[in-house]
Amino acid sequence: MSRKRTVVLISGRGSNMTALIAAAADPSYPAEIVGVISDRANAAGLGIAQSRGIATKVIQRADHPSKDAYDAAIDAALTGFGADIVALAGYMRILGRGLVEKWQGRMVNIHPALLPAFKGLDTHARALRAGVRIHGCSVHFVTPEMDDGPIIAQAAVPVMVGDNEDTLAARVLKVEHRLYPLALGLVAEGKARMEKGHTVLAHFADDADNATSMVMAPDPLREESDLEQLARITP
Length: 235
Ligand code: GRF
Known about the structure:
Elements: E1 4-10, H1 15-24, E2 31-38, H2 44-51, E3 56-58, H3 67-80, E4 85-88, H4 97-103, E5 107-111, H5 123-130, E6 134-141, E7 151-158, H6 165-188, E8 192-195, E9 198-201, H7 207-214, E10 215-216, H8 220-223, H9 227-233
Parallel strand pairs: 1-2, 1-4, 2-3, 4-5, 7-10
Antiparallel strand pairs: 5-6, 6-7, 8-9
Helix pairs in contact: 1-6
Residues 10, 12-17, 89-90, 110-112, 137, 173, 176 line the site of 5-O-phosphono-beta-D-ribofuranosylamine.
């Protein structure tokens, strides 16, 4: 099996990137992380990638005369890395239509909400304001419209009584780190493909496999709640 060469794009702390690097440390994982690109020279994730022996590149918008020139530099770097797949992980820029269309079906992103709810920024604060009882994260194929591409996999967590933005973000982030390696693995293996604007998922050998692979809902009873609290918030 040839592992899919994957480049991760980051802007900051890089905890999802770290989770992907950790998954890819297993030689049987279908993707290998061959490079990390950041649009910010001070992104903490760059140091983490370097300490894992992964090549890094900083490509800043301010160093390019136009958005098109910036996108072209990203594209050239991806080609330079010999990328098969691009994984956006906390990359805070919107890539141009031309670049996204070129990589469509081979570019994925993780978003900290259960899409199509709460596209954009401040998802946890907005989820709390909306009063949703279930929140989570999504991995999706990237299309030119922000946070709009076909969903590959999602993970849900409960919103607990007394949550604030930070506690909720931390609970979601924990499942992001499990979901992203799972979803990238599906894409790298060809078990999740984008066709005509939709995600096509391979048929799984049995239903149990299918259920655990596609929807992850960490057991709130075991993880961080007690039965009484769950009973109070669950209709
Ligand atoms: C994550 O919550 C991710 O879903 C969002 O940005 C955050 C990045 O965190 N797109 P990190 O850099 O992976 O730690």
